[in-house]
Amino acid sequence: xxxxxxxxxxxxxxxxxxxxxxxxxxxxxxxxxxxxxxxxxxxxxxxxxxxxxxxxxxxxxxxxxxxxxxxxxxxxxxxxxxxxxxxxxxxxxxxxxxxxxxxxxxx
Length: 107
Description:
21% strand, alpha/beta, four-stranded parallel sheet, 2 helices
């Protein structure tokens, strides 16, 4: 299931009780151009969830605890990943291969 439809994307991300983003949920969705906010309750992001979302403006993690990442979650993307400023080192340690893209924001 690919959620390139704007309404479907908004419904998915607005569901603040969803603890997992499914594998491939936004894969190859080049029409995805905005900043995506990932709710703090998300504890895992499935394989290739954002793969090839090359127009994505950025990912904003709302939680201080980094979700576990499946294989290739951000493959084919270059966008920054915004995390709470107090959690930058935690994210960099957990997401070692993405360290250069992690940027802190003030909550």
